[in-house]
Amino acid sequence: MLRVGITGGIGSGKSTVSAVFVFLGIPYYNADERALWLTEHHPDIIREITAEFGNQAYAFGSYNRKFIASIVFNDSYKLQKLNQIIHPRVADDYAEFCEKHKHFPYTLKEAAILFESGSYKFLDKTIMVVADKELKIQRVCERDNISRDEVLRRIEKQMPDEEKIKLADFVIKNNLREMIIPQVISLHKQILSIPY
What percent of the residues of the chain are helix, what percent strand, and what percent coil, each to the nearest 5? Predict the structure, then answer.
């Protein structure tokens, strides 16, 4: 079984592209969603985050994302500590997912920071979803109901698409000019032809 990763900048539409792979029957793992689920439910993560950030980290019995974000947003050391708590558990969870789906020709792992985190090094192939900057801004403004300036700030914090494209094995264009489904089907056939 091949382990294929998919990523893209904010507003690129990587989840939309992933949905086409799921429609084709490919097992799909969303690392960001699983990280959040594990942060809410994994007893060791809860214990370690509480020890590092205090009881307010789990206000009213659930993970206090705003509180944690307010700390790690401006403190790279605290962000590193948070990642050291969560990322190894996500890696273990993903390994279990792959074991469960090992009879498939490949699985798809979506992660926003696939390249930034270095987790792409543990995958066989990677897909980068790209879109025009203005289209990404429009999508995120509408999706998150935030200002253009806020979206631009988020984009500036991310690794530039140009750098990610250099690291990726495949690129899917999710603009209004190219159709997604034919690109995914073509890529799906390519991946199926790769020996594993």
Answer: 60, 15, 25
Q: Are residues 63 and 125 in the same domain?
A: no
C-alpha to C-alpha distance for 13 and 18, rounded to whole angstroms: 9
β-sheet bridge partners, residue 170: 127
Whether the Cβ atoms of residue 82 and residue 54 lie closer than 8 Å to each other: no
Q: Are residues 112 and 192 in the same domain?
A: yes
Q: What does the block give as tokens for 61? A: 């019995």
Number of domains in the chain: 2
Residues of the chain with pLDDT under 70: none
Tell me if 29 sits within 8 A of 94, measured CB to CB. yes
What six digits make up the tokens of 128? 């980068």
Task: Look up residue 126 and give its two tokens.
Answer: 């990677």
Q: Please answer whether residues 47 and 126 qualify as being in contact, where contact means their C-beta atoms are separated by less than 8 angstroms.
A: no
**Tokens standing for residue 31:** 């690392």
Provide the residue type at 174 as one letter.
N
Q: Which two tokens stand for residue 16?
A: 């939309």
Burial of 142 (0-12, 13-18, 19+ CB in 10 A): exposed
Each residue's pLDDT tens digit, 95-136: 999 999 999 999 999 999 999 888 999 999 999 999 999 999
